[in-house]
Amino acid sequence: MATKAKRPKVDDGSEINPLQDFLQWCHRVGLVLSNKVCVSKEGTVAEYGMLAEDNIEEGEVLFTIPRSALLHQQTTEVSVVLNKESSSLESSSGWVPLLLALLYEYTSPRSHWKPYLSLWTDFKTLDHPMFWSKEERDGLLRGTGVPEAVDTDLANIQREYTDVVLPFIVNHPDLWNPDTHTLELYTQLVAFVMAYSFQEPQEEEDSEDDEEEEDEEEKAPNPPMMVPMADMLNHVSNHNANLVFTPGSLKMVCVRPIRKGEEVFNTYGQMANWQLLHMYGFTEPYRSNGNDTADIPVSNLYAVATQGVQSDAERQLAEEQREVLCRMMQEKGVFVFGKQGCLTDAELHTVLKVLSMSKEEFSEFKDNEGWEEDEDDEISLVFSNEGLPGLKASWKRLIHEAARLTARSYGDLEEEEGGVKSDQALMEDKAAFEGLSSRKQKALQVRCGQKSILHRLMQLTESQQ
Length: 465
Hints:
Helix content is 43%, strand content 11%. It is built from 18 helices and 13 strands. It has a four-stranded antiparallel beta sheet, with no helix packed on it. Strand 8 and strand 9 form a beta hairpin. Helix 10 crosses helix 15 (393-408). The longest helix is centred in the middle third of the chain and has 26 residues, at 146-171. The two termini are 50 Å apart. Mean pLDDT is 87; it is low at 1-14, 206-216 and 415-420.
């Protein structure tokens, strides 16, 4: 639902409109906005958005942003000190220089970026799960993977602030102040960067030498940057505009016709609803998000595989298989399923193959240090929705029971409040759904999307008696 912006009063009784102030700033910095679009809080899916004021054809440029108008560690007023002491700002996130720039610019009354940053007063519109209580996260999002991701984020943010940011701030009291630039503000700015920043794609390397070098050491992604105007656009998976990077500017280009009155949507990438909620604080209606996914923990597959194991020899074989697979899987702790099948099919294929081996087969497998893998295309087909029903019965049973075990981990949204409605029933009852809080609605979108994929997977792997 669209909401009206709150406009602070000035002494002469007139009103300052933050959006108009921002648009005037855009004009001053050379940002060119097509007269076929407007920025508004009315008629958009959430907060600010962009609407078409005329029919727009594919290929038309909606706005052009000069690179000098982008906000990042090289354009901020404190760029000199950030560059000079960059070695002390290294962290696992790679975001510290931008975040220090934002800490400075957001709180400086003389900031060149004030008209832009003033659009987000105290970041009250950010509703990432990191701002929910732990009880809310663990209750509403149980089984989705979001609570675990947020716990990791919060621990990393606190560690990064304490170990890297705070010492740097204390060493530069003329630019930053620990009483103003607190962990709370830092956390809000992390969410702001998560939700609104952009990363420039890596340049394509043409030569074989470059490709070989890239294989040996994968390039780190470009650091994030804030892109005024581009971050006004809301996201849908079926978007109608796309941001194009050129040497001198960034352009938002229409990728399919947009009719007058329609909203202009960018895409943040192929994002499942749990990722959208975790990173951006919103969800799409679960049936319309073609990128939705559900994760089956590898541990659930192991649990199913060891059910009914009785003899010591069988138990020892299962344990050895698990140890080998843990080394092969490394950090990958889940199998990811999308609406069309398994997205981590090579890993699933490996695990199913090993878990189904006899003692002799497993011994030969270890002696040979693995096997020659099948063609990727073949594996993809085998673990697609079309191929799953044709799997051997033992593999289908493992997938089916692991999916069932995963589906049980969610519980139902109203369960703890004494309600009797399942998640799906709540979703289909319009009045009941609209009666839920915003956070419960978003949690329900995530849960229903994931559970529908798991239930479909169980249908496809059901044993035919």
